[in-house]
Amino acid sequence: xxxxxxxxxxxxxxxxxxxxxxxxxxxxxxxxxxxxxxxxxxxxxxxxxxxxxxxxxxxxxxxxxxxxxxxxxxxxxxxxxxxxxxxxxxxxxxxxxxxxxxxxxxxxxxxxxxxxxxxxxxxxxxxxxxxxxxxxxxxxxxxxxxxxxxxxxxxxxxxxxxxxxxxxxxxxxxxxxxxxxxxxxxxxxxxxxxxxxxxxxxxxxxxxxxxxxxxxxxxxxxxxxxxxxxxxxxxxxxxxxxxxxxxxxxxxxxxxxxxxxxxxxxxxxxxxxxxxxxxxxxxxxxxxxxxxxxxxxxxxxxxxxxxxxxxxxxxxxxxxxxxxxxxxxxxxxxxxxxxxxxxxxxxxxxxxxxxxxxxxxxxxxxxxxxxxxxxx
Length: 376
Prior knowledge:
The protein is an alpha+beta fold.
């Protein structure tokens, strides 16, 4: 079981196509035609952007697709080095003034810099229609190399760096997602006919609580088990090493704060000011992650987390030095998977039904046999 737990720490997804063949639903028929699907996608996107900005006091801003390697603002997603960005050389001016650039994997760190750039005060924030490429994912039913997210960030005060404030913001995000489901069902009533809706209430759990409930199960199996009882959960404290010697999942050390001590519902000391919203997907009959979010590191917790992960060399990057020097705002932020959310709300079996990207031949043929129309 220890081997299983270790293997379960970093990589999301399924891992092989024999297993995926079993997981894709039998006798699947989309509740929307391809044309209706496109209309529903943009109706839901517009609704979420408008209502998320209203709920969290955000404004929409532009976001980069490529960044300078030397800036240190790209996201490495996990701390084991398994997911590296696409990098390329721009031989500008006959290589007299070149740039080494990377395609973003997420805008997590860029957003915090942008808060400062746009003069955001505590209580104000920004939201982006972010696009990225993650080349190291296994491509299955809900992971693709092409990533689209509503990446948002909001400036906060030092007093708001707490688990209670995190829960308050998580609750507001959840209300937007629940209301979006009702909105698209009003536009397309056939979406109401076959599957249960999202619950109004989101269940909050700490990763340590979840481990206590299922001590012998690896992380993904713990999530699957709890979602049978609570179909929508927020798991807090992802990244800190739990009592079994493993973190719930590995998280990068330079954005979310997973080291700050907090207190659990039963009074125990636990750690972490971040977490994920997961739901039970009734179409795929699997756990389904919608969003990760968290209160970001300050100067003290950044250094502490980099020490723990052996990455103190990151402090040479401008982004990290700016946090150490307290030049960037304290903040909370997250990324809501656009295609993941649309897949769930529109009752789709595969991410490729709501986003256009590349898929291997074996997956496209498998989907065709299962009556899943993958966009190309």
